[in-house]
Structures are given as structure tokens and as C-alpha cells.
Design brief:
alpha/beta; two-stranded parallel ribbon
Length: 470
């Protein structure tokens, strides 16, 4: 049965897509992820010391999460079981765990020596190998497992019955249970660089056994560079496009003739660039964070790029307009009082005309905000005052500032008694008026933009009061 199973797997692998056939088989064949796979880095050290704990791989599609899981299983001589979080059940998980227990028990009793391996980690040729003692359970889309399904894994992960490797495109710190996360090491995968994608494409063109090396493909550097760029770090997408471009010509011209893979063929073989963006996930918050910080940092070019990124991916332009409005008060304030007017106008226009025309309005508003003088004095003032209101003693309204719509309120309660009408005094400043009842300074204008004029006015008013007191 083991021999039949491996024969079936070899046949399936031979007909698999190029992206599957070209999966790296060893750690050294993997490109990218040097932050944890490079020499002396954490995961490399864990493998070298044979002290592998459960792992969580977090990153975009096509960055090598599944491939690395398979390579790790082979490196550790472990059986490889793959489940998908969207379709697997608790029963499926328990079955793998039971097989893992049996496998461990067989090794302790010496049963199974010399049998063929039963792992399913790739299309390795049939060969006799040491019996598999450990089990790698790879769960793709682990974030789709609910709490009960994740809890099933806890004891066996902690006891080492299985080595869990979970892959997710979602932030694991929000989508995976804390108990399971505490038993795992998280590694964040980055999209592959253009040079790395191009290297994978050249490797596929040269490989006689698994790749396209048996075909006389004449690929131009320009064509490969285009695939590397437009695939946006997704190795699977680039290899699939290469296979489509080559094999479609082989089908028409025959495998014995040269196949030209130039820029025109490359452009036809890959779809328009897909923007990786989730309007409810990390990408949504990361992009708007970069947009806001670019405007706050007075970089109009970066602000326009992140704006274009969000709009192209389908972000709600009203959401962007709201964030611009908030920034106009939080980060610009009275350094440029016109900013809030422009933000309000932009929001109204966006609501009325929508996409695609409103992108012009948003770009104009974003550039204005990025190039306006900055001050967070208003933000700091309301934050400090709010903190006093919440944590300090509640201040009563001074009697002379209280409302007195009824004569009795003035005569019997003293409301509004002694109030000084500012316009009755020189400069519009009443000399002895107290408006708070305690000595507090919340608003401290900067020396930037219009706020320097506000600062000068407040200093003048202070001196005017001091002169009248004398």
C-alpha cells in the first residue's frame, strides 16, 4: 500500500503546475526570508539544533509559507499532513493526532524499521528511508479555525505529539487564540523581491527534470523582469504566467521548435496586477496609517502614493476624506486655519460626486495637508483638559459667568453678577475677568504658521491685563 501510494503521488507531482513542481526541496534552495532563514538566524538555528517548536507563518500569498513547511518536514524526517482551515473539521485534526501518537509509539517499540516513508511532503523518488517518528501538521489558513478547533491542538502541541505549522495571511495576534500562540513561534514572511522572483524564473527555465529545461525557451531579460515586477512578490503567480506563456506556444508549434518568450508574450500571460488589500484587515489599517503619517510628515509624494494605493484597491473614498478631516485639526490646527475648511469642502465633494472624479479632490486635499504648517497644540489642549475633567475635581462654573435668564437668578443667586463685557474695555480685553476659576494653561501655540500670530496676540493680551492690574 505504501508503494502504491507513493506511485500515485509521483504521478500527481509529474502533472502538477510548474509552481508546484519547482517548490524548493531544501532550506538552501529557498529564496528570501533571510530575516529568520539566513545563516545564524532563529529558524535556521532551531533546525540545526533539532529543537523545533510549533510555528506560525504569517505573510502574503506566494511568499513560500507552504513550501517552507514541507521542507521543514523533510529536513526533520517527519510525516507531513496538510489540512485547510476553511474545510477541515475537529475530526480531521483528531485523526492526524492519533496517527502521530501511533507513529511515536511505533518508534518507541522498535516497530517499522526499514519501511518506506509515509510522508506526503513532495514528489521525491521512491527510496528506502528511516521510519518517520515525528509528525508535522500543516494547517493552511489557520485563522479560519474557530476557538474550539484551535483548542483541540493545545495539549498535543505542548506535549510534542505534533509539530504544528500554521499559515495565515491575517495578523495572528488578532486571529489566533492566545494559548495556541503562546506555544508557537511566529515568523512574518515578506513578499519576494523582483531579483528573487527573476532568479526563480531562470531556475525553472533551466531545470530539466521539474521545470521547462527540456523546452528550448528563448526568454528575454525584459520579459522576466516584467513578470517579476507585475507579480508583486508572488512566486506562484510569476511561475504560473511563465508556464502559460511557454506551454501555449508549445501546444501550437510543437515541443521541438524554439519558443520565444518576450515582453509581449509576458504581458499576455499574466493578468493585470492585483492589489493585495483587505478593507477590514491589516492592509486597510497599514495603508491609512502610512497615508496619515505621510501628510503629518509633510511628504506630499508619499501621501499621494498611499492615496492611489487605497483608491485603486477599492477603499471607500469617504473613509479617506474623514481621515483627512481629522488630520486637519489634529496635526495642522491653527497653524493653518484654512486646512479644516479645505478638508470639509473635500468631504462634501467626495460625497456628492464619488469615484473616479473625487480622486482629484482627495489628491488636492492630501497635498494641501502635507504642505501646510503643522501644529498639534489644539489636540494637546483638548487632551489635557479632558484628562483634568475625567481625573480631577469637577470645577464649578464661576458665578459671574453663569446664565441669568430670570431676574431672580441674578438678584437672589448672584448669577452673572460682576461679569465684565469685554467690548467695554480697551483692546476688547477685560482687566480682571477670570474665566476658569483655577490657574491652568492648556493651549500653547507653536511658532509655526498662523499660530505664531496667535501666540503674539495671547502675549499682548497678557501684558494688557498686567498693565491694567498695575
Amino acid at each position: 500500500m505504501d508503494l502504491l501510494r507513493q506511485s500515485e503521488e509521483a504521478a500527481i507531482a509529474a502533472n502538477a503546475p510548474l509552481a508546484v513542481r519547482m517548490r524548493p526541496r531544501t532550506i538552501d534552495e529557498i529564496l528570501g526570508q533571510e530575516e529568520f532563514l539566513g545563516e545564524g538566524k532563529m529558524l535556521r538555528r532551531m533546525l540545526a539544533a533539532d529543537r523545533l517548536s510549533s510555528l506560525v507563518f504569517f505573510g502574503p500569498p506566494g511568499s513560500g509559507k507552504t513550501t517552507l513547511a514541507r521542507v521543514i518536514a523533510d529536513h526533520c524526517s517527519a510525516a507531513f499532513h496538510e489540512l485547510n482551515g476553511a474545510s477541515a473539521s475537529v475530526k480531521d485534526v483528531r485523526e492526524v493526532i492519533e496517527q502521530a501518537r501511533v507513529r511515536l509509539g511505533s518508534m518507541k517499540s522498535g516497530i517499522g524499521s526499514g519501511k518506506l516513508g509515509t510522508g506526503t511532503s513532495g514528489a521525491a523518488p521512491l527510496r528506502s528511508q528511516p521510519p518517520l517518528s515525528r509528525t508535522v501538521l500543516f494547517i493552511d489558513e489557520l485563522h479560519r479555525f474557530n476557538r474550539a478547533q484551535q483548542d483541540v491542538l493545545l495539549n498535543d502541541v505542548e506535549n510534542g505529539v505534533i509539530i504544528l505549522i500554521g499559515a495565515t495571511t491575517e495578523n495572528p495576534f488578532f486571529t489566533i487564540n492566545s494559548p495556541l500562540l503562546s506555544r508557537s513561534t511566529v515568523f512574518e514572511f515578506k513578499p519576494l523581491g523582483e531579483e528573487q522572483i527573476a532568479a526563480l524564473l531562470r531556475r525553472a527555465l533551466a531545470d530539466q527534470d521539474r521545470g521547462l529545461g527540456a523546452i528550448n525557451v528563448q526568454a528575454t531579460d525584459e520579459a522576466l523582469a516584467h513578470l517579476a515586477k507585475i507579480s508583486d512578490g508572488d512566486a506562484r503567480r510569476a511561475l504560473t504566467a511563465l508556464e502559460v506563456g511557454v506551454m501555449s506556444q508549445v501546444t501550437h508549434a510543437g515541443s521541438d521548435k524554439p519558443v520565444a518568450f518576450d515582453l509581449a508574450v509576458a504581458q499576455e500571460s499574466i493578468q493585470q496586477k492585483a492589489i493585495q488589500y483587505d478593507r477590514t484587515g491589516d492592509m486597510h489599517y497599514d495603508a491609512i496609517s502610512a497615508f496619515i503619517k505621510s501628510m503629518r510628515g509633510s511628504d506630499p509624494d508619499a501621501a499621494v502614493y498611499w492615496l492611489a494605493r487605497m483608491l485603486t484597491a477599492g477603499e471607500d473614498p469617504r473613509f479617506i476624506a474623514r481621515r483627512i478631516s481629522i488630520l486637519a485639526s489634529e496635526d495642522i490646527g491653527n497653524a493653518d486655519p484654512r486646512a479644516i475648511t479645505i478638508a470639509a469642502s473635500a468631504y462634501a465633494i467626495v460625497e456628492r460626486i464619488g469615484m473616479p472624479e473625487c480622486q482629484l479632490t482627495l489628491a488636492q486635499a492630501a497635498i494641501y495637508m502635507a504642505t501646510a504648517p503643522k501644529s498639534n497644540a489644539s489636540y494637546k489642549a483638548i487632551s489635557a483638559a479632558t484628562d483634568d475633567v475625567r481625573t480631577g475635581r469637577t470645577l464649578p462654573v464661576p458665578r459671574h459667568l453663569r446664565n441669568a435668564p430670570h431676574p431672580g437668578m441674578r438678584e437672589q443667586l448672584g448669577n452673572a453678577e460682576g461679569y465684565q463685557y469685554s467690548h467695554d474695555f480697551a483692546g476688547g480685553i477685560s482687566p480682571d475677568q477670570d474665566y476658569l476659576g483655577v490657574d491652568r494653561t492648556y493651549y500653547q501655540p507653536t511658532d509655526r504658521g498662523y499660530e505664531k500670530h496667535i501666540a503674539a496676540y495671547l502675549e499682548w493680551a497678557k501684558k494688557l491685563r498686567e498693565k491694567k492690574e498695575e
